[in-house]
Target: DP-E2F-like 1
Amino acid sequence: MRQYGGGKGQGIVGRHGCDLVEVVVVMISILRSCVKMAMPSSEPKESGSRHFPYCRKEKSLGLLCTNFLSLYDKDGVETIGLDEAATRLGVERRRIYDIVNVLESVGILARMAKNRYSWKGFRGIPQALQDLKEEGLRENYSTLEVNAKVSDDEDEKVSISIASSQDDKINRSSSVSSFSKASKTNNRKEKSLGLLTQNFIKLFLCSNVELISLDDAAKILLGDAHDPSIRRNNSAAKVRRLYDISNVLSSMNFVEKRQGSLPSGGWGIREKSENGSENAFVLNESKKRVFGTEITNTSFKRSKALLPKDGCSNQMSKTQLQAHVKCEPMGNEVHKSNLQQDSRQSSKGYRFGPFAPVSVSRAGAAEKNNVKQVHDWENLAATYRPEYHNQGIMYDLMWSLIIFF
DNA sequence: TAATCCCGCCAAACA
DNA sequence: TGTTTGGCGGGATTA
Model:
């Protein structure tokens, strides 16, 4: 029996017989069904604009990515035109560039020609991640220290390796994307969203970091900033880009946003266990916004226009998805422990998004019947309802990679 | 007030 | 030279 659970850095090639291909197939099934649920029932272009004032959330990259995937993750889709995508999604092309750059960096898309991408789908992800991991491990890294979270229980300083130079990275051949094939002189590519996405993912793949703040990630990914002034400016800019990246990745459940040690609440998903009581895994949305993921938010005053009619009931937590798709080495007590800790920790954090929340407390069961549970997805989804909690102070907002690792 | 991140300007890259 | 691409940061929105 395969085990799906928390872990880091070692997930893509599961040990102890964990079948990566099967995991991916399961994940794809989940993603497909979830994307359908997350898809707004009305045209994105029309929603909101007709009856509601401008709503920033309707324009979020995460939501756009969800809709993008819904649009193209279908049989028979082989190529994607950017203009067509922009038109169909009702956004300007500039936004499509952001989406496709991130999707390309994780292997979902591949650039064919001007204005044209080929759709590789979620099946492209494992190879892309494997390439990223190998590439990251191969690279001649320098070492930085960063305050990162390596477990749910303790913060500690860990050493994170980062590439010694962007040039090293972009010159390395890789099947992941064209970013790695950029010329040395291509300064623009060095700062591309796609490359930044890949480096961001490498932080998780090539280190034992589970959680990292975008601020820290920006500092780590900041190439050459020894000049404090340059560093400050670049960091601010990169944090903005990392927000973009994280929101796109989170819409695919690649990463999740967590609150580190905050005392309480916000918007979130609360699980109701079979016996009707709330279990230990209470999901609380951050006080801060998570654009694009707020399709799970039932607050009328906020994203009413985009909520599907059954949007509230069709939500599942990332954690449940995580429990389904994570490939955890069998018998790894450390990670098992981490998973349990993660379950507790989640009571202080939140996991939600287009692919919705569930309970990690079910992880054990999920590990036993993960494949079957995929088929029961919709039934499980109906168990969960968003619930409002009083907002608490939030700090230590972190991001972690959850798929495959 | 700080965190978040949408928006669109405009320059680089490309055809 | 026109078009495509996408870095970048201002500033609006939200908690």
The first helix of chain A runs from residue 20 to 38. Residues 369 and 378 of chain A are 15 Å apart (CA to CA). Residues 56, 59-61, 92, 94-95, 114, 186-188, 239-240, 243-244, 247, 288-291, 394, 397 of chain A lie near DNA strand B (CB under 10 Å from a C1').
